Prior knowledge:
Blueprint: H1 4-17, E1 28-32, E2 40-44, E3 52-53, E4 61-66, E5 72-77, E6 84-89, E7 96-97, E8 104-110, E9 117-122, E10 128-133, E11 141-142, E12 150-155, E13 161-166, E14 175-180, E15 187-188, E16 202-203, E17 210-215, E18 222-227, E19 235-236, E20 243-249, E21 255-262, E22 267-274, E23 281-286, E24 296-297
Amino acid sequence: MGRLPVFLGLCSSLAILLGATTPEQPKLIYTSNRTGSSNDIFLINPDGSEPKNLTNSDYDNTYPAWSPDGKKIAFASSRAGNPAIHVMDADGSNVKQITRDSIRDGAPAWSPDGKRIAFSRLIDGSNLDIFVMNPDGTALVNLTNDPAYDMSPAWSPDGKKLAFSSNRASPNGFRTYVMDADGKNVRDISKQDCGLGYMYPAWSPDGKSILFGESSANGGGMEIFAVDPSGEHKRQITKIGGVNTHAAWSPDGKRIAFQHFDQVQAFGSLYMMDANGANPVEILKEEGLFDGGRPAWKPGK
Length: 301
């Protein structure tokens, strides 16, 4: 028994020699116009502290999305004229434009294996489709090819499905759909319109739930709901009023970051809550919500 402290000390010394480190703290990226008229992508802690501007440009930079290994960030930027998909290193360096010749590209989403990026493309001013491509912009394929507005793709954790929003069922509102990764077998899982706007689906890390925003009956607000990928067992997650949208699960599935807009005070905030909707806390206050302002968690546990 007298040798145990010596043994523990040797283990501690060996861990130091082998370069053992404490686990990296989780990080978020999100879009903000806090530095001026343009939107930039910031890296922050989950409590909103230590914001770091990764894009730092005079152009709009929106829809940030991590690569599965956490080494790259895909995003939309207007730095080349029309909004196009770009990819940069996780520290904001080495920016490369990967889509061209489009009216507007946005909402990139990296497949879980890192081999494909899905995104929304505005084709002719009245037709928005979901496309998929290689991370370098090659092998471009239109998955939805529908005259409606199809937008905001989100991959299932196994990479076999994509959720997205569309007004194909009604010109007066958006619904959430799920399709195979090749664009086949499209299914309506929300089964009712969301007239307020984009619903931004987000798949849970375990693949058992999809978050989306749903406007109230009178169109005066939006709350975040969860539903099974089959469309069953719909349940309300947020109950704080105003507009709540752009939800993003933490990698461990325990927390959800989202945007909140107080319609009375006319300001927007980045919020954090438990996965069941409990303990919603404002972590950052912004000027307001805007298309492409979604948060995204860095991959990891």
